[in-house]
Design goal:
76% of the residues lie in helices and 0% in strands. By secondary structure, it is an all-alpha fold. The protein has two domains: 46 residues, Arc Repressor Mutant, subunit A; 131 residues, Tetracycline Repressor, domain 2 (Orthogonal Bundle), CATH 1.10.357.10. The termini are far apart. One of its GO terms (biological process) is negative regulation of DNA-templated transcription.
Length: 187
């Protein structure tokens, strides 16, 4: 096994254990068992549980941002781009439900250094939405609006629904959300 592979195995195992037990209750020994390695091996790659947790968050964010940068770049109508943007958030957080629950419900045990990573994700998500809106304005698909406000509204609605979806088991449909965003609620 190559050194980089072992690091990835540790991060994968840590993601599962942090999601299951939370940051405070997670034990490096449990992570090593999950990874199939000795506990001391973890410390060859990470100085502390806090550093490992930050790497878990960075890894998840890196995957998410990579997906985010691809959404809406294809030549397709704005309603399809918007649906893809919303679906990406929904599917990513559903796939990473346990870790997302940990990050939203148990913020006490999350190291302060992790917060800067969330600000980066928010910025990237807003930028992706701004780019989608800008393209739609240029193609005459939507009226000229303040792009950052529109992006924040789209992201706010999306995050609110995704959160309700897995914290309150509320089911919702992406197409319904796109319809309400594009057509509003007035008659």
């Amino acid at each position: 096994m190559m050194k980089g592979d072992k690091r990835e195995i540790i991060i994968e195992a840590a993601t599962a254990i942090f999601a299951r037990d939370g940051f405070d209750r997670a034990k490096m020994e449990d992570i090593s068992i999950q990874a199939g390695i000795g506990k001391g091996t973890i410390y060859e790659y990470f100085k502390s549980k806090k550093e490992l947790f930050q790497e878990v968050i960075k890894n998840s964010i890196s995957i998410y941002v990579g997906l985010l940068k691809d959404v809406g770049t294809e030549e397709q109508p704005f309603d399809k781009k918007l649906a893809d943007f919303i679906r990406l958030h929904k599917e990513f957080l559903e796939k990473n439900r346990d870790l997302a629950n940990l990050l939203m419900k148990d913020t006490r045990g999350i190291p302060d250094g992790v917060k800067k990573h969330f600000l980066y994700v928010k910025k990237e998500a807003i930028n992706a939405a701004v780019n989608m809106i800008d393209s739609a304005i240029q193609h005459g698909e939507v009226r000229d609006i303040k792009r950052r406000i529109g992006a924040r509204i789209i992201l706010g609605i999306t995050i609110s629904l995704v959160t309700a979806g897995f914290m309150e088991d509320e089911d919702w449909n992406v197409d319904d959300v796109v319809d309400i965003i594009l057509n509003g609620i007035s008659r």
